[in-house]
Amino acid sequence: xxxxxxxxxxxxxxxxxxxxxxxxxxxxxxxxxxxxxxxxxxxxxxxxxxxxxxxxxxxxxxxxxxxxxxxxxxxxxxxxxxxxxxxxxxxxxxxxxxxxxxxxxxxxxxxxxxxxxxxxxxxxxxxxxxxxxxxxxxxxxxxxxxxxxxxxxxxxxxxxxxxxxxxxxxxxxxxxxxxxxxxxxxxxxxxxxxxxxxxxxxxxxxxxxxxxxxxxxxxxxxxx
Length: 224
Known about the structure:
The relative contact order is 0.19. The protein is α+β, with helices and mostly antiparallel strands. It has four helices and eleven strands, in the order αββαβββββαββββα.
């Protein structure tokens, strides 16, 4: 920095030396410099704590943030597990077992904000009666069973059409304000289009991670 620039971005206070009558200049950080430092190094703010996360850019695919070992489905067919939903091949997908109802519980490695969901029909909708039609969404509900779903109000209920389930359909936007700090999302498929079982080809979630959070650390704090 030139001396001109340095003086513009720095405050000085003068301490007079009584012996030599000269002033000693002591640099004090200006508001400008502190602000720039906090923008470049958020962790330096508030005594080393991370600054609050901010949204920016477009929502991204949340697949890398899914904690698959802690995710599960209830009433899934043994040959068509929920893990098939995330491999990108709708010919495999996930199917229910005993009846048309299916619970899909998705855990995340860190808190996320969920903006939209995309449901894809099984095998390009080869069996339209098996397409899910009525879907309830629950946020941060652990071990939710079918009986519990009758007693707990969902965050949101979706009514899916054949158009919604097409491979190239736009994701379904959610009520974003309800999905700002999500550690898990439980999807209860209550009904389908009349088939004996429900089949789903793929599932995609779009949103953003909440920076600076880790579910493993969070759970340890709760247990402690």
